[in-house]
From TrEMBL:
Name of the protein this chain belongs to: Ferredoxin-like protein in nif region
Keyword vocabulary terms for this entry: 4Fe-4S, Electron transport, Iron, Iron-sulfur, Metal-binding, Nitrogen fixation, Transport
InterPro entries, per the entry: 4Fe4S_Fe-S-bd (IPR017896), 4Fe4S_Fe_S_CS (IPR017900)
Keyword flag Cell membrane: no
Protein source organism: Ciceribacter ferrooxidans
Length: 64
């Protein structure tokens, strides 16, 4: 299962893009999106999902 970004809550701060260990997060259109084919929920890299941990807006990076 992958994570997704709630576009209406995303502030486009870009913090998540640089924290993603698999490069699954990219800016597309007017917000950031997570490629579900690349998202591993940080398994094998971190104990917690980095996008959710770094995001300044709670519950913006959530399980898809």
């Amino acid at each position: 299962m992958a994570f997704k970004i709630i576009a209406s809550q995303c502030t486009q701060c870009s913090a998540c893009e640089f924290e993603c260990p698999t490069g699954a997060i990219k800016f597309k259109g007017e917000t950031y999106v997570i490629d579900p084919n690349k998202c591993t929920e940080c398994e094998g890299y971190f104990e917690t999902q980095q996008c959710a941990a770094i995001c300044p807006v709670p519950k913006t990076c959530v399980p898809a």
